[in-house]
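Issue 218. Parser rejects a valid record. Input:
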Amino acid sequence: MTATALTLHSIAGRSRIRIPEMRGDAEWFEAVRAGIAAYPGISRVSASPAGASLLVEGHDLAVRRIGSLAETQGWFRLEPPAPEPARARRGTDALVPVLVLLALVQAVRGQIMVPALTLLWYAARLD
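Output the parser choked on:
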């Protein structure tokens, strides 16, 4: 049986992979760590059996190919990363014009530095 792995985060040349099914199996993690470390283009591999994760660093192309290497070797099957959830709007669309209007009122009153700028900042952050 091949374990299922998840990419926790991935940037150019670095990827953290979690394999929850193998949590605590130090021998398995050491074998996989050594196998990945021997792959051309990989500069460093850290294994955490307690955290059920691998940190792989090296040439970007080599790091991106870890999934196919692991599946070929029968270590794990790397699931594609889940899409990031869309930011919830929570009805803030109606607040933007209100905050802009309040900022204008404060500006007319001469309260330019703190209240007007603060309200405009909040309006920009909501949009």
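Fixed in the parser; the record now loads. Helices lie at 26-37, 60-64, 66-73, 95-108, 112-126.
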